[in-house]
Design brief:
This protein is α/β, with parallel strands linked by helices. It contains seven helices and 15 strands. The structure holds ligand LYUYDEPV. The site of the ligand NC(=O)CCC(=O)C(=O)O has 10 residues, from helix 5. One of its GO terms (biological process) is asparagine metabolic process. This is CN hydrolase domain-containing protein.
Length: 288
């Protein structure tokens, strides 16, 4: 059993790109409180990519915080998320924030995950940096100021294993495949696609990762903010293991609720048993 029981989740799609970090945190809290009031049986909440800062290569350093598991007090955002997770006894996937590593001075785009007791249970540094150049579309180069992580992430909850990637990581099927083979029932991606690549690929990629692995896929975006330099696509969504979008936001601020159900995974994996039909004898170079 890879998902032990049904679990209600909420995605917080809010305008998170305010220049005031304090205001971004306050707004995140306001939406988490609203989600818990509206659907008190919610057990897991996801925030968007870079939810405490503008999404900008020139700003990452200014907003970056050290994330030290043994001393979370050095990170105001971790302290804030830890308190909220324990207050509501939820798993809180803290989107991502710019992280500075005090030993190397490198900056990462990092997701932090807290359990129901407010303990930091995982940290994922974005592995694939968003460096693209589409003439007359969008040019972005995260690697100008960010360093890439090098560790795929899965973490245990009382519901089962969950895999995690950040935004552009979604384009690389290997991470979702690795997590699924470790037994994850869902792949969660805080992300901030834009108005060029969002319409092209956001839904397709989410649905592809779901059907590749017959798993749930969860994408949580900031709401679109035309006052910021980067226009996030929005459309936070949840895809089921059959590839159906079961919940989706528009472009504005919104909370998306969905229920993940173990029987949907089990049934579909029996009906279309690709999970058990892989031919590693034919492609042994793909790691098991
Ligand atoms: N923040 C990101 O990684 C954006 C990724 C994106 O827009 C894409 O098309 O991929």
């Amino acid at each position: 059993m890879i998902l032990s029981q049904k679990i209600k989740i909420a995605l917080i799609q809010f305008k998170s790109s305010n220049p005031s970090k304090q205001l971004n945190l306050q707004n995140a809290q306001k939406f988490i409180e609203k989600a818990m009031k509206t659907q008190p049986d919610t057990k897991l909440i996801v925030l968007p990519e870079c939810f405490n800062s503008p999404y900008s290569i020139t700003k990452f350093k200014e907003y970056a915080e050290p994330i030290i598991a043994t001393d979370l007090s050095q990170s105001p955002t971790c302290t804030f998320l830890s308190k909220l997770a324990s207050r509501f006894q939820i798993i809180l996937i803290g989107g991502s924030i710019p992280e500075c590593d005090p030993t190397t001075s490198k900056i990462y785009n990092t997701s932090i995950i807290f359990n129901e007791q407010g303990h930091l249970i995982a940290k994922h540094r974005k592995i694939h940096l968003f460096d693209i150049d589409i003439p007359n579309g969008i040019t972005f180069k995260e690697s100008t100021t960010l360093s890439p992580g090098s560790q795929p992430t899965t973490f245990s909850t009382k519901y089962g294993q969950i895999g995690l990637g950040i935004c552009y990581d979604l384009r690389f099927p290997e991470l979702a495949m690795i997590a699924a083979r470790k037994g994850a029932f869902a792949m969660v991606y805080p992300g901030a696609f834009n108005t060029v690549t969002g319409p092209m690929h956001w839904h397709l990629l989410a649905r592809s990762r779901a059907i590749d692995n017959e798993n749930y896929v969860v994408l949580c975006s900031p709401a679109r903010n035309l006052e910021s330099d980067y226009h996030a696509y929005g459309h936070s969504l949840v895809v089921d293991p059959r590839g159906n979008i079961i919940a989706e936001a528009g472009e504005d601020e919104e909370i998306v609720f969905a229920e993940l159900d173990p029987s949907v995974i089990e049934q579909f994996r029996k009906q279309v048993p690709i999970t058990f039909q892989r031919r590693f004898d034919v492609y042994p170079d793909v790691s098991k």
